[in-house]
Automatic annotation (TrEMBL):
Catalyzed reactions: a 1,2-diacyl-sn-glycero-3-phospho-N,N-dimethylethanolamine + S-adenosyl-L-methionine = a 1,2-diacyl-sn-glycero-3-phosphocholine + S-adenosyl-L-homocysteine + H(+); a 1,2-diacyl-sn-glycero-3-phospho-N-methylethanolamine + S-adenosyl-L-methionine = a 1,2-diacyl-sn-glycero-3-phospho-N,N-dimethylethanolamine + S-adenosyl-L-homocysteine + H(+)
Name of the protein in question: Phosphatidyl-N-methylethanolamine N-methyltransferase
GO cellular component: endoplasmic reticulum membrane; mitochondrial membrane
The family this protein is said to belong to: Belongs to the class VI-like SAM-binding methyltransferase superfamily. PEMT/PEM2 methyltransferase family.
Intramembrane segments: 21-41
Length: 206
């Protein structure tokens, strides 16, 4: 190999304009979204404020779903727009990188959309915090190929876009998405498990 790993990383990092305000905004949105929905969901669980405000658990959950969905669209638009003004790097441009980018993006979208299809709106958007629980664990594709198809698919889509455009700045955002989802899962999984454990306990006492 001509270049060492360190040189490759240096070259990639040099291609990133960290000073760009759009890039910084993309970073902020990426961090904000999972923090936002986790905090709102926890508040809902403890106070039922969205349920009260919207006149029902299902309505509250739809309201939150629409908000999270819109925030996601805004974040994706800012990400794309931020990448447009970043430089490409010859290390990740060229036909094969473009193809890999498209493939990862498509796989990511398939994971996201198929898990949404399987879970439904309330299953996808934190319905359990509203007391809307799934009757049983969803199995089958995409849950037989991925532990968290929503998060893993989203991360792959970010990465795919970065490679498709050949922009190292996209790799930085993708890494951050990966990291944020990892933290979010560490926070969400035990809480969701607790909600379902309580339901099962309540069922036994009936
Ligand atoms: C996952 O499930 C689908 C059907 O829902 C099946 O076609 C596919 O082969 C399964 N994949 C794995 C890796 O088990």
């Amino acid at each position: 190999m001509k270049e060492s790993v360190q040189e490759i990383i240096q070259q990639l990092v040099h291609s990133v304009d960290f000073q760009s305000s759009k890039f910084q905004l993309a970073i902020i949105c990426t961090m904000f979204n999972p923090i936002f929905w986790n905090i709102v969901a926890r508040i809902e669980y403890h106070t039922h404020s969205l349920t009260k405000m919207c006149g029902g658990a299902k309505k509250g959950c739809y309201m939150l779903a629409a908000t999270i969905f819109s925030l996601g669209i805004i974040r994706d638009m800012i990400y794309e727009s931020a990448l447009r003004e970043q430089s490409t790097c010859s290390l990740i441009t060229g036909g094969n990188w473009t193809k890999l980018g498209v493939a990862l993006f498509v796989v990511g979208q398939v994971l996201v959309l198929s898990s949404m299809y399987k879970l439904g709106i309330t299953g996808t958007y934190l319905g359990d915090y509203f007391g809307i629980l799934m009757d049983e664990r969803v199995t089958g594709f995409p849950f037989n190929v991925s532990d968290n198809p929503m998060y893993q698919g989203s991360t792959l889509s970010f990465l795919g876009m970065a490679l498709y455009k050949g922009k190292p700045a996209g790799l930085v955002v993708s890494a951050l998405v990966y990291f944020m989802y990892k933290i979010a899962l560490r926070w969400e999984e035990p809480f969701t498990a607790m909600i379902y454990a309580n339901r099962d306990k309540a069922k036994k006492n009936v």
